[in-house]
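cron nightly-structures :: item 1 of 1
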Amino acid sequence: MYLLNKKILVFVFGLILIIAIAYYLSVSFNDKNDIQIPKETIQIQKNHSEKKDSLDLFFSFLEYYELEEGDTFISTLKKTNLNNREIDQLITAARDVMNINQLRIGTRIEIISDLIKEERIVKEIVIYPDSEENISVLRINDKFTVRKDIKTLYSELVFHEIEIDKSIYSSLKNINVPDNIIMSFVKLFSFDIDFQRDIRNKNKINILFEQFKDKDGELVKTGSIFFAEIILTKDSYELYKFEENNYIEYFNSEGKSATKALMKTPINGARLSSAYGMRKHPILGYNKKHMGVDFAAPIGTPIMAAGTGHIEYVGTNGGAGKYIRIKHLNGYKTSYSHLSGYASGIQKNVRVRQGQTIGYVGSTGLSTGPHLHYEVIFNGEKINPMKMKLPSGKKLKGMNLNNFLTERDRINNEISKIKN
């Protein structure tokens, strides 16, 4: 009897244990079914179920490149796993929506690849030619197709009224004015103002410019300056944007153009380190007439063409080191010495625009430190750039003047609305 009862107890205990294990497994299975599996994981499981021997897709890879001096779109593609036939197909497709030979230095190119059967396969190339669009070249069924995405941008006018503290650049930078707007502002007044001597603390700046934001309120790009004003201790200069025959120019309130033949200072943020006239040459050691002006600035600082013209000479020129000379209208020429290098595309007989970057500050040739030596030649004679009488710009007349005055009043009304 005792043995019988013991067997019954063992049987009951075992039965209870089996029921408990079965219940635990059932609950655990249901909990697992409630887990949210990431999409990527679902895709991998799907591939695995379709082909049992291996996972078709393990990883996606993102590589990116930024075009540097001498790089091309094709040379960048050759760094990828694309073969020559695929590169030719991709370029043929891309040419339908963009000029691949005009991609600028700094253009970002993304390469998206999948690892399939232990081999990287390029699936998509994304090119960002500027801040408001991107171009995708996708591989679909072993062929490349192109898609262009353009952001919707929203325009807004920004007006600032500030006092100069230390420098124009730092004063505008402190209120988050973009660099290209600051450079444009300086160029507008570089025909009339010597920024090293004329600007003082507490001088005032007024500026109205356009900027464009995306739907999230992020700044994408800036537009034009509509109004710019510098109020100095004794003088003031104001300029309004006016578009005439698809050409943008700036005029004072009476319709007189801001554009002069040549800039006094073809470099921004530099210090006048040596004036025109007699001086003891810092290297040769004897007195010699200094036939230009020197602007001390860090190596690599951009140098602008002082006026529109044609490159007459570019290359090494004795003690001047790396050198550029530009021939302008009306008997004027300008020269730029001791450069560290030349801007892209600068070569003999090339036409350059006023304000265009032509080279970069250096210390080549007979030089004791990085600076620009700038000369102005008029009818074959070197003259003092800081004292030359610059030809005045044009004066609007007739219907053009009336149209300008209407635009001037519209801009003034925009400023009043923003200020109020």
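cron nightly-structures :: done
The chain has three domains: 41-150, 154-251, 271-383.
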